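Exercise 7. Given the encoded structure of a 660-residue chain, write a plausible sequence.
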């Protein structure tokens, strides 16, 4: 549920500017150091750390949007920090020393249009290498020991034994209720593995097959050129338009109540697909919402009841339930919080559709579910193996995604995982089957990154195993990319173009709607990153030796960008004069208005208001709204505009017909 906000906040990429202040030795006793900056200015500090020491710093933004970069003793870049907190609020920075010496911290203003603003920086905590793995993870989580802010719960199992278990921070700020390992959190897309497992249980009962046409159970779904199977829904290859984009096109905001019936009704009205079923992978909440509806119809009871009776209760997951109605009270649950400047604000969760999300649970209960993969109480070993088996597209291309679970490698370890996020809740559940290790994390802090914490848990509890795995990895000779082969324009989503050019220092990219060039840092052959390792491009070379596309990796998500030949046009007033009018979508039940205001064309709809349209290609425009990133106007044989096709990140060509 947070894919869109994650992507578009990350696309406010950092610009590289020069340093305009001398290095300053940072005071280590907690005293605040104040400064003022205006882009492109930057200030440098240094901090002395012992070998294997660590430090946690807090940079408070007071009217200036900052990025913070850390550097090793030899000047090499370590990591870049830029939260979505804007120009007010904290940037948290962590430094871990590999050797004794002075480490660098650069504080850089990144908004060129903003006036000068103030900031402060201080060391919140620091120490030397802890004595054991639990103490090392404690030190890593030092930021979340506050008694007046949201926090997290984490539990680690190794060979079935609890080796780490902790709750820190507050579940309810208004009443100072602490988080424990039994506190219930919404876990977003972690729900998907419970949805997939429900289907496998019903298949074992003989009530369905994963290769069934979904219309066998949902006959209201439109007939497409190629039928959609349950397996394609499970493996995100069905091509359905994304529910998030569709809701926002209808004007539904984060504070509006949305039920399962609302979501299903909207999906059953969609006559178009993003691609032919089975031909591609595209992460889809829509598919799992429909799968929950299938489970309910086949089982003869609602999906929440089925999951409760067949999975949660047999596993003793007493803190868990799938929410069936907005606003339902869950005992001992955490509220979700974001930041408004420096102040915490509640991020309400008013949707209650399920299958893609909906599960409320604790880390203790998640560990009971994870243990079921090793010693099944519900299902059997065959079912637990099937849910982890990666899929294959109709093209024969393999997927890493299985059934509500994904696979990746981390430092030589094979990891099975899934994350989740909705409102300000964040969650992560991973397993390393070879070493029988489980990490379960839940949080109610919007800016918490569970992936980093999960990886740290692997680092400390499987340190020897990681060292052995990395020792066995074959040495790879570093190769330089042929930069000229990568230059070009690439479309990641409709209206979102990365224009990559070569400059003296290397490759830079410009992004639709952002004027400044952004450096691409080469980290391997045809592999580049923006800011940090969680944000990477991996280019693919075609038969002609030129890149024909790239895989864009953002945290655990991957999207495919394709090279395109753009014809940059700016249509004259005569060419676009006939675009004005009222356009209505039968699939969404809403209308939009296109009109000209002075020299600017705008699109307007109920609730989300008015948005300027930027010329993109002939009869095609982009906007700053993610759900309608591109508007493409269609003409008949006489050149008359008859409709407008609206595309978002994961909902393509939603048709709005012109009303005469």
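Solution.
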């Amino acid at each position: 549920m947070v894919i869109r906000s994650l992507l578009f906040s990350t696309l406010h990429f950092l610009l590289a500017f020069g340093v305009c202040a001398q290095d300053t030795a940072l005071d280590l006793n907690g005293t605040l150091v104040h400064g003022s900056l205006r882009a492109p200015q930057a200030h440098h500090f240094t901090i002395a750390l012992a070998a294997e020491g660590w430090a946690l710093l807090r940079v408070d933004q007071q009217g200036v949007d900052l990025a913070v970069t850390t550097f090793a003793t030899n000047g090499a870049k370590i990591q870049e920090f830029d939260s979505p907190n804007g120009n007010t609020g904290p940037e948290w920075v962590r430094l871990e020393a590999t050797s004794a010496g002075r480490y660098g911290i650069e504080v850089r203003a990144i908004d060129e249009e903003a006036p000068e603003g103030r900031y402060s920086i201080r060391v919140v905590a620091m120490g030397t290498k802890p004595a054991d793995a639990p103490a090392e993870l404690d030190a890593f989580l030092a930021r979340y020991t506050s008694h007046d802010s949201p926090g997290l719960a984490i539990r680690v199992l190794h060979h079935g034994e609890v080796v780490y278990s902790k709750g820190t921070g507050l579940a309810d700020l208004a009443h100072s209720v602490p988080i424990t390992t039994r506190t219930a959190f919404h876990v977003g897309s972690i729900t998907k593995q419970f949805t997939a497992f429900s289907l496998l249980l019903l298949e074992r009962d003989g009530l369905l097959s994963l290769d069934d046409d979904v219309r066998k159970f949902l006959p209201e779904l439109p007939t497409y050129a190629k039928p959609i199977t349950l397996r394609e829904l499970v493996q995100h290859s069905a091509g359905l338009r994304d529910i998030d984009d569709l809701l926002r096109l209808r004007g539904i905001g984060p504070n509006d109540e949305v039920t399962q019936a609302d979501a299903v009704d909207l999906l059953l009205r969609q006559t178009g697909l993003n691609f032919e079923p089975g031909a591609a992978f595209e992460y889809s909440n829509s598919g799992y919402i429909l799968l929950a509806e299938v489970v309910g119809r086949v089982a003869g009871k609602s999906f929440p009841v089925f999951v409760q009776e067949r999975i949660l209760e047999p596993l003793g997951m007493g803190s868990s339930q799938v929410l069936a109605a907005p606003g339902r009270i869950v005992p001992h649950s955490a509220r979700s919080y974001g930041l408004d400047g420096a102040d915490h604000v509640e991020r309400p969760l008013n949707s209650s559709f399920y299958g893609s999300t909906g599960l409320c649970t604790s880390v203790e209960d998640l560990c009971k579910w994870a243990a079921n993969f090793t010693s099944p109480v519900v299902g059997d070993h065959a079912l637990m193996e099937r849910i982890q088996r990666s899929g294959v597209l109709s093209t024969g291309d393999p997927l890493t995604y299985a059934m509500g679970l994904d696979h990746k490698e981390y430092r030589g370890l094979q990891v099975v995982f899934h994350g989740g996020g909705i409102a300000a809740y964040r969650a992560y559940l991973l397993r390393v089957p070879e070493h029988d290790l489980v990490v379960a994390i839940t949080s109610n802090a919007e800016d918490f990154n569970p992936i980093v914490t999960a990886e740290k848990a692997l680092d400390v509890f499987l340190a020897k195993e990681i060292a052995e795995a990395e020792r066995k990895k074959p040495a790879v000779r570093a190769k330089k990319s042929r930069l000229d082969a990568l230059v070009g324009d690439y479309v990641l989503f409709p209206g979102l173009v990365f224009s990559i050019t070569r400059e003296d220092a290397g490759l830079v990219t410009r992004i639709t709607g952002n004027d400044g060039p952004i450096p691409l840092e080469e980290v391997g052959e045809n592999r580049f990153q923006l800011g940090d390792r969680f944000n990477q491009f991996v280019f693919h070379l075609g038969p002609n030796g030129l890149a024909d596309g790239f895989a864009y990796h953002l945290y655990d998500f991957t999207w495919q960008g394709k090279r395109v030949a753009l014809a940059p046009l700016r249509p004259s007033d005569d060419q676009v004069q006939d675009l004005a009018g009222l356009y209505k979508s039968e699939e969404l039940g809403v209308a939009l208005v296109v009109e000209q205001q002075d020299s600017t064309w705008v699109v307007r709809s109920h609730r989300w208001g008015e948005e300027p349209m930027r010329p993109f290609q002939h009869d095609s425009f982009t906007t700053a709204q993610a759900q309608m990133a591109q508007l493409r106007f269609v003409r008949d044989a006489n050149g008359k505009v008859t409709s407008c096709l609206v595309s978002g990140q994961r909902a393509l060509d939603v048709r709005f017909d012109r009303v005469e």
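Remark. The two ends are 37 Å apart (CA to CA). Students should compare their own answers with the one above.
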